[in-house]
Design brief:
6 strands, single chain, disordered C terminus, alpha/beta, 7 helices, about 20% strand, about 180 residues
């Protein structure tokens, strides 16, 4: 527990909460500009099991905004690099990199192993697959998005089972069976 002494000082936390964190499992979908800081803070806080789903490789255009990666990482899978980095950051946790694009065929199987899902994706179809699967599995979905200088965050499928389509009704028309290109 000495690793977490500073956060144990926070009145709302404590050893019981730290124990809950160490037994928690969080799936992060997207290993880019949102996924890296999310994963890094969860690892630092001591979340015991972190999964990272992404099928992208590091490209030069990522380097200015995805601070987990460097020029030496070009061409490598983001999930592999990020999982290794987080494991070095906190050897007391388990980190799994999953190199694939989440879709309707694999979403339920992947998500079912985790308590909470963080949507750190950058495309609508992946968001809709996550929304649908989390609704079916009754898993909380932390939805985050960034556009230009604005950001938003919300928790879906928690106590009232609010879905992404409840927040953005126009997206109901997107076909979730299509793959992104």
């Amino acid at each position: 527990m000495s690793r977490y002494q500073r956060q144990l000082l926070v009145k709302e936390l404590g050893e019981n909460t730290q124990s809950l964190l160490s037994n928690a499992s969080v799936l992060i979908v997207g290993a880019g500009g949102l996924g890296f800081p999310t994963a890094s803070y969860l690892a630092g806080a001591g979340v015991g099991n972190i999964g990272i789903v992404d099928n992208d490789r590091v490209e030069e255009s990522n380097l200015n905004r995805q601070l987990a990666y460097s020029i030496n990482d070009l061409g490598n899978y983001k999930t592999t690099l990020l999982a290794e980095r987080l494991q070095r950051q906190n050897e007391q946790i388990q980190v799994v990199g999953i190199k694939l694009r989440l879709d309707d065929q694999n979403a339920l199987g992947i998500i079912s192993d985790y308590d909470i899902v963080c949507d750190c994706t950058d495309n609508l179809n992946s968001r809709l697959h996550l929304d649908k699967a989390c609704s079916e599995l009754k898993r909380p979905l932390v939805y985050a998005g960034v556009k230009d200088w604005e950001g938003m965050i919300s928790v879906l499928h928690y106590k009232q089972n609010i879905r992404l389509q409840d927040l953005f009704p126009v997206i109901e028309t997107v076909n979730t069976d299509q793959n992104d290109e």
